[in-house]
């Protein structure tokens, strides 16, 4: 088993002998075998044990057991105690999710503090099969079907080739002691239901279900890689980023007509397959102005492009005083200056010059609101800001980022678009108030 273990590490380029490792050891048979294999293979590692305080005295006994084991093989051991139930209640998550978040947050901290290269966990082939079955039951794409990754950034899993039976056999042959977590035998958790009920039924159909799953997993991994290559090629040709916004060609999307590709493109922004299907439907029947939302982003089906942008939440309002030279708010800076040279004025989208004597300080910057109206430069009458934005062909999702500079009750500048005609510089202007907006990098 040691040879298979080392070959798997080499074949998947998981780590080097010179790398210092952090090994998660619960005290169960899987992690005890992992630590033993690493020790026999002469890797340098530190053991990390989490006490989640979920099983009363048994949790403390696990901690003592792991400490004694670490001492017996002359390896450093670090332990941490968590109030998992309180964390789960405060975060509104399950006990399983709470334990996962707590341990990986702590592991990341240890990696940084101790200068360790990789976190090593004892996930094995049966775990990967159970993950695939679990994801299949919930609904998933290729990435969910291919099971657990062998390597994910600084997390490595050198036992993913081994079945549970192989691990138990090695433990018996090497007289390795371990502690059983009785919760693993309960069907209270979904993964346990799969392990205790579903997998045994599958073995009746195929006694070698774990080993045949390996070949299925390899094919799915290659399919996932092919899909990612297709996604990346598509992005290189038809994806444009402007600032924080992303533009995707509608014509090309209609030609390709593959929801699974669109899902790959939208997933980093929090969109699901079902949402991607709805977006594709809107693209195909040409519904300009249609909006779709994830927790962090929104997608707008515009005239020629699919536009992905961050959601803007909350009311933005702050003041600019006449003595100010620099005003910073969020990611924006306003540079302000006073001049009497009417021959030198700003006329760009984000740099304007206004008639100082017409301004009523303090000026205010706020998000536009329904009912807002102003007199666009060059016009005699007022126009609703909503109509102005339609004329300017501002996409729906970008309208959320339109801000106005107000003077008293008037809009003096629709920032980034147009000043109000009443505040323009004329031959009778005496002083000029210059405003330059700069987006902070």
How would you characterize this protein structure?
With 441 residues, this protein is of the alpha+beta class. It folds into three domains: 2-217, Rossmann fold (3-Layer(aba) Sandwich), CATH 3.40.50; 243-310, no CATH class; 317-439, Phenylalanyl-tRNA Synthetase, Chain B, domain 3, CATH 3.50.40.10. It is 40% helix and 23% strand. It has 15 helices and 23 strands. It has helices at residues 2-11, 29-40, 57-72, 84-91, 95-114, 125-138, 142-145, 164-173, 190-205, 209-238, 250-256, 259-266, 273-284, 385-391, 396-399; strands spanning 20-24, 44-51, 77-81, 118-120, 151-152, 155-156, 239-242, 245-249, 290-293, 297-301, 305-310, 317-320, 326-329, 332-339, 347-348, 351-355, 363-367, 373-374, 383-384, 403-407, 410-414, 418-419, 432-439. The protein has a six-stranded mixed sheet, with helices on both faces. β7 (239-242) and β8 (245-249) form a beta hairpin. The protein is elongated. The two termini are 53 Å apart.
Keywords for this entry:
six-stranded mixed sheet; Rossmann fold; 40% helix; single chain; Lysidine-tRNA-synth_C; Phenylalanyl-tRNA Synthetase, Chain B, domain 3; 441 residues; 3 domains; alpha+beta
Secondary structure blueprint with pairings:
Elements: H1 2-11, E1 20-24, H2 29-40, E2 44-51, H3 57-72, E3 77-81, H4 84-91, H5 95-114, E4 118-120, H6 125-138, H7 142-145, E5 151-152, E6 155-156, H8 164-173, H9 190-205, H10 209-238, E7 239-242, E8 245-249, H11 250-256, H12 259-266, H13 273-284, E9 290-293, E10 297-301, E11 305-310, E12 317-320, E13 326-329, E14 332-339, E15 347-348, E16 351-355, E17 363-367, E18 373-374, E19 383-384, H14 385-391, H15 396-399, E20 403-407, E21 410-414, E22 418-419, E23 432-439
Parallel strand pairs: 1-2, 1-4, 2-3, 4-6
Antiparallel strand pairs: 5-6, 7-8, 8-11, 9-10, 10-11, 12-17, 13-14, 14-23, 15-16, 16-23, 17-20, 18-19, 20-21, 21-22
Helix pairs in contact: 2-8, 4-5, 6-9, 10-12, 12-13
């Amino acid at each position: 088993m040691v040879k298979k273990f080392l070959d798997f590490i080499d074949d998947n380029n998981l780590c080097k002998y010179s790398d210092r490792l952090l090994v998660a050891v619960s005290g169960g048979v899987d992690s005890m075998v992992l630590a033993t294999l690493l020790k026999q293979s002469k890797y340098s590692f530190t053991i990390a044990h989490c006490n989640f305080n979920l099983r009363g005295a048994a949790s403390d006994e696990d901690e003592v057991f792991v400490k004694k084991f670490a001492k017996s093989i002359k390896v450093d051991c670090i332990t941490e105690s968590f109030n998992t139930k309180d964390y789960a209640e405060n975060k509104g998550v399950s006990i399983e999710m709470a334990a996962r978040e707590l341990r990986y947050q702590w592991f990341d901290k240890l990696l940084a503090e101790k200068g360790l290269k990789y976190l090593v966990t004892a996930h094995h082939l049966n775990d990967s099969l159970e993950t695939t079955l679990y994801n299949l039951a919930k609904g998933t794409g290729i990435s969910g079907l291919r099971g657990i990754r062998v390597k994910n950034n600084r997390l490595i899993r050198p036992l993913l080739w081994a079945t549970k039976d192989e691990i138990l056999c090695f433990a018996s042959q090497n007289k390795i002691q371990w502690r059983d977590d009785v919760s693993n035998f309960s069907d209270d958790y979904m993964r346990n239901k799969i392990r205790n009920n579903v997998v045994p039924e599958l073995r009746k159909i195929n006694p070698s279900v774990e080993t045949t799953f390996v070949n299925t997993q390899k094919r799915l991994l290659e399919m996932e890689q092919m899909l990612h290559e297709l996604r990346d090629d598509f992005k290189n040709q038809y994806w444009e980023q402007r600032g924080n916004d992303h533009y995707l060609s509608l014509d090309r999307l209609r030609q390709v007509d593959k929801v699974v590709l669109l899902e790959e493109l939208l997933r980093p922004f929090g969109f699901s397959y079902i949402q991607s299907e709805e977006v594709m439907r809107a693209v195909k029947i040409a519904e300009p102005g249609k909006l779709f939302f994830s927790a962090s982003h929104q997608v707008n089906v515009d005239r020629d492009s699919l536009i992905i942008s961050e959601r803007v939440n909350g009311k933005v309002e702050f003041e600019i005083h006449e003595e100010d030279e620099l005003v910073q708010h969020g990611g924006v800076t306003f540079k302000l200056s006073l001049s009497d040279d009417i021959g030198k004025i700003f006329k760009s989208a984000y740099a304007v010059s206004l008639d100082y004597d017409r301004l009523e300080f303090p000026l205010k910057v706020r998000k536009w609101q329904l009912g807002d109206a102003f007199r666009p430069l060059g016009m005699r009458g007022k126009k609703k800001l909503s109509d102005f934005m339609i004329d300017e062909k501002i996409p729906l999702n970008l309208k959320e980022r339109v801000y106005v500079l107000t003077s008293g009750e008037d809009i003096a500048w629709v920032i980034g678009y147009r000043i109000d005609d009443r505040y323009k510089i004329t031959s009778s202007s005496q002083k000029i108030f210059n405003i330059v907006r700069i987006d902070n990098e």
